[in-house]
């Protein structure tokens, strides 16, 4: 388990360098009292491990910009990719002037994963109204454009980003989709249509793409109340909060969501889950634990071993 005595921890992402696993995570002071206030005081913490179990906490990686900047309120979820000996972090930023209602994506650069500089072109990636809902249009409560998952595709020689977004079409309440954009240099981005269809989710949060047995699997999180009535009927009237999967045979293919969370836990939902590889051919799951007894958790789980089933679906490993 990863926990801090004085701060809550929630969404997180990893970067691997040699035999080091670098953990980046959202954090906020427990002195705030109300865990819901953490979203407006979030910074990016940093820790390192050689086994995903024992962690050394390092100086913080990223924090909000100066007053009046596009990210002067809080820094939210991101991801890291390496290119040409440098490390690039895409991250979500929100500002005070817009009362955190408009989400944008910025870029930070590092030579060593420890010291980060925000790129002067920020923000580098914003929602495109051709395909995605914008603040106030059709009554949208905010402009969802966050949680970028960035990766390189050798097939088309581009970086790609999956983004938590709302589609510009379909019922607004259930318009949550996998947003999509691509870039050759991580600074200039082309926004593309969503990879998933609207209709089942209000939000498709903190996506991560992994390729398993030839299937493209996107791990994402959603709350029970953010799943449509149609989905609930299909599931027999029930829905759960947790980490789910989209699976498709092709990268641009028909992404179908799983019905049940990837990992169930009697202590409560496991959110913002990520797949890691502790060793070649091995897969494990780590997630944010919201509840510890009757209190907000704000911790990350230990490794939960997984196995790959038919069609690329993941499940906890037997035994």
Provide a descriptive summary of the structure in words.
It is built from 1 helix and 21 strands. The protein is mostly beta strands and 319 residues long. It has a single domain, classed as Glycosyl hydrolase domain, family 43 (Tachylectin-2, Chain A, 5 Propeller), CATH 2.115.10. Strands 17, 18, 19, 20 and 21 form a 5-stranded antiparallel beta sheet that branches.
Short précis:
By secondary structure, the protein is mainly beta.
Task: Map the helices and strands.
Blueprint lengths: L6 E11 L2 E10 L13 E7 L6 E7 L11 E10 L2 E9 L9 E7 L6 E2 L26 E9 L4 E9 L9 E8 L5 E4 L12 E8 L2 E8 L6 H6 L7 E7 L7 E2 L12 E7 L6 E10 L2 E6 L3 E5 L5 E3 L3
Antiparallel strand pairs: 1-2, 2-3, 3-4, 5-6, 6-7, 7-8, 9-10, 10-11, 11-12, 13-14, 14-15, 15-16, 17-18, 18-19, 18-20, 20-21
Examine the secondary-structure arrangement and name the CATH architecture.
5 Propeller
What CATH calls the topology is Tachylectin-2, Chain A
CA-based shape: globular
Which class in CATH terms?
Answer: Mainly Beta
Give the domain tally. 1
- In DSSP terms (H or I, runs of 4 or more residues), the helix count works out at 1
Structural class, from secondary structure content? mainly beta
Entry keywords:
single chain; mainly beta; Tachylectin-2, Chain A; four-stranded antiparallel β-sheet; 1 helix
